Amino acid sequence: MPESITHMEYVKLCGIYIKEHMIPMGNGPFIFFDKPNSLVKPPSLIGGVHPDLYYKRSDLLIIGEAKSETDIDNPHSRKQYEYYFKECECFEGVSYMVFCTSWTSCVTLWNMVRRMKRESGYHAHIVVLCESGVYKKD
User: Fold this and answer.
1) Residues 97, 127 contacting (CB under 8 angstroms)
2) What is the reported pLDDT for 24?
3) 3-state secondary structure (DSSP) of residue 44
4) Contacts of 71 (CB under 8 A, 6+ apart)
5) What percent of the chain stands above pLDDT 70?
C-alpha cells in the first residue's frame, strides 16, 4: 500500500535528524530508507515488518519509524514497536528508536513507547520528533 505524502515527509524528517544529530562525522553515513525513490531499502524484515529507516554499524543501531496520527495505536503499529525494541535488545552496542509524527500526536506516541519500554525492561533510547523538531528523547 503506498504511503501518504505526510508519512513520507515524516520519514524525511527522521532521516535528516539522524544524519545531522546521531551519526558521527566521518563514518560515511549510509541510512536505508523505505521510500519509493530509495535505491537501497531497509533490511528485509524485523519480525515480519520493515522499518522506515535503518542504520547500523558495529557500535550503533538506529531504527526510524514515521507515524501518521491514525497509525500510532493499532495492532500493526504495536507489533512494529515490539519487534523493533527486540531488535535493539539483541544489538550489543548503543541502540535508538527514532519516531516522527505530528505535533498533536507526539504526547500519545511518546507515552506509548515509553510505557512499552518501561514495562518490558527494554534499553533502547527513544527520540520522538515532530514537524518543529525534537519533542522528547531519553
Assistant:
1) yes
2) 77
3) coil
4) 7, 77
5) 85
